[in-house]
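FW: tagging you since you asked about this chain on Friday. Here's the raw sequence from the shared folder, copied in full. Didn't touch anything.
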Amino acid sequence: MALISLSRIVAHWTAVQPARTALYHEGAELTWDELEARTNRLARAYQALGVKKDDFVTIALPNGLEFFEACIATWKAGATPQPVSARLPKFERDQIVEVGAPSLVVGVAPDEYAPIPCVPMGYEADDALSNTALPEVTSVSYKAMTSGGSTGRPKLIVSKSPAAADPDLPLLEIPHQGCMLIPGPLYHNGPFLWAMTALFKGCTVVVTTRFDAEETLRLIEAQKVDVVYMVPTMMRRIWALPEDVRARHDLTSLRTLWHLAAPCPPWLKECFIEWLGPEVIWELYGGTEGQGSTTIQGTEWLTHKGSVGKPVATCEMKVVDDAGQTLPPGQVGEVFIRPLAGAGTTYHYIGAEAKAIEGGWESLGDMGWMDAEGYLYLTDRLSDMILVGGANIYPAEVEAAIDAFPGVRSSAIIGLPDEDMGARLHAVIDRPEGPADPAAMEAHLAERLVRYKVPKSFEYVDEPVRDDAGKVRRKSLREARIAAS
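HL: got it, structure written out here
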């Protein structure tokens, strides 16, 4: 089948399966014909508010039916969805709106960004608007995701893939007209990509407001889920359930469990392989920018334990030393990726500049090595980015918020080991006058950072944590605190 515009993809599946459930969220559901009619009206409402072809629409909605409706209506209006966390502090959301300059913000107070039109959560299009199909229109980019950025300022990662999809193209082991479960936040690239790809392939998409280990197993059984998206933190929490709780749920419908966004401990992966079968477990390594990725099925992983797989057919990878020379198999260096279509063909930034080396190779900031067969093994993060439960946290962003507190001279954010989340944020704060009032610091950070970016622990020192060049030695700070504990 040829590409179908995302302004037409729901209509395509409505013609095939009008009464089948398209979306399910905590007991509420929409059939394909209901989704088609509702998003036609909503797209017209968005157009009346000023949304035009290739505009951005910032969507600050929690997981639920309304999030999908807003994205689909945006595509039908010819624009690009730009999701952000519904719980994002206004300070941070303001910066994203400034960078993206959307023509509409969804999920905030009506006058929040005047003169930019805004509509609140729960907004309904006027029933008087037509629910018939709109003219076909395809935006140049189907998504624009947000990243904190290494500078501490947000940036948009704008896909160069147009808003169109081929439902017949094999992708992510997602079957036609199957059932996908997404227990992760849809404003993150992974859950967004898996959910929308499943929808484009005519699947029922089941989404939860937040992750709950036993509820995830219950939904797999009740909804006969074929494919589920997870991060290792979710897998850890499921494995922490009593064995009889795990065993009471029938998971025989499950054909594929994807895990990504953070390293998975080999012991945990082996447990899931033994439990669900090696053919069910799949892993992907890659970035939102989409330059390339690796994938590996559990059957392969058992013969290449610890690997994240081989590069997919659309990209190439290499491991280089500090001088930029390609390293032989078995030697650790920085991992670089390049799409076969050429550098800059998969994305562009707004609010930042891409960093590439000669030949268009780009790095996601990881260290690793390749074996003689071309399987990639990751060893550590080269960059300062900290992974907490699958979410990327850039220290500069958190440090900027802490440094704005009265009396703080400088600060450093490090990730300390955490069995549940993979890492927890620890703040080392240089404040000569002594520790800040905990309640005051908490209130200060709550105004500037989404909750998961607020450090779990604070340590106050009376000496600089940065040198005269403004550099901080995170590795030594982290090692000293791990040793002391």
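FW: The mean pLDDT is 93.
HL: agreed, and Residues 4-276 form a domain with the Rossmann fold fold (CATH 3.40.50.12780).
FW: great, closing this out.
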